[in-house]
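Entry 14. Structure prediction run on the chain below.
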Amino acid sequence: MRAVVYRGINDLRVETVPVPRTGRAELLVRVAACGVCPTDIKKIQYGTVAPPRIFGHETAGTIVRVGSAVRGWKTGDRVALHHHVPCLECHACRHRAFAQCAQYKRTGITAGFEPAGGGYAEYVRVMPFVLPGVVKIPSRNTFLEGAMLEPVNTVLKAVKRLNLLRGDAVLVAGQGPIGLMFTRVLALRGIRVLASDLLDSRLELARQFGAKWIMNAGSAGSGKAPEDWRTPRPRGTDFACRTAELVKRLTGGRGLDAAVIAVPSDEVVREAQQLVRGGGQVLLFSHTRRSTETSLDLATICVDEKDLIGSYSADFLLQREVARLVFSRKLDVRRLITHQFSLEETAAAIALASGPTVESLKIVVVSDYLRLSTNRNRELF
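Output returned:
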């Protein structure tokens, strides 16, 4: 089969590798679609793991082989996969810190070599311990929607970490694919979202996804998209003051109840600390690259009781809720997918996702048979 093999920093090669051999308690899935995730981009661009590997973990496809000991699945089932499943028994799991579980940190889906997700290949092997994370895709829904379950799961997990009440005001900083998911999930829960981004096109989409207010982060406008937002202004003290004034006006002087930081910017974190009310929360979602230097006002955490929290990866126990959210199209993830690349074009997909354009949002690698089918829901093989 064909697969995109990581051979070193920024070195991805389309190679022929053996179709994975599966055991009696495993599945073999033909990949239809696999999303491009920033965590894989980081590994590829910074060499944080040793080659060779086959990446890609936001995967959907069709079961083509079912082990004799596997129950509940059959050949031909269209499924979304989940590459991390916790043990539910260890100390971390008892505290629901699933991403810290030793089993969770193992990758249970592979196309060969050291397991790394394998979605950038024609077939993947699904190991026994992640079978509970497999989700059936309804006939009305697409493989592309199935491939989006994993990133939506990470967002829903993070939202559930926030201590929010209906009607609260929350900033979502950054309206890329993840930020837009946050905006929609929060809006569905009755939260008043202030969406910020540097691009007006993304802000307009944020409004369509349920944001009550939108703010161009280059101008700190009035919350109603006036014309003067079209010219970004330098960030600095004046920007921070105008942003604070805007937030005070929108929240009746109280301040934000929480802020979700969906961009890897320390400056935005510091600004958010000032914008949330006493007892509010700032949630980090995109700060996944380790660093030893940062500057935060720790008194805001101690004296003002503003929680600084993080959320990483998914919560396996939320899979059913995530499936209902996506497959009902209350969160219509199809609107987030702007570019589809073939398996041979995976390196270009990674490049676009790491350096997005005004037009690009979610990037997905799709199989040849899915591209030729124009993504219609028919039995493809």
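The two ends are 16 Å apart (CA to CA).
Filed with the rest of this week's runs.
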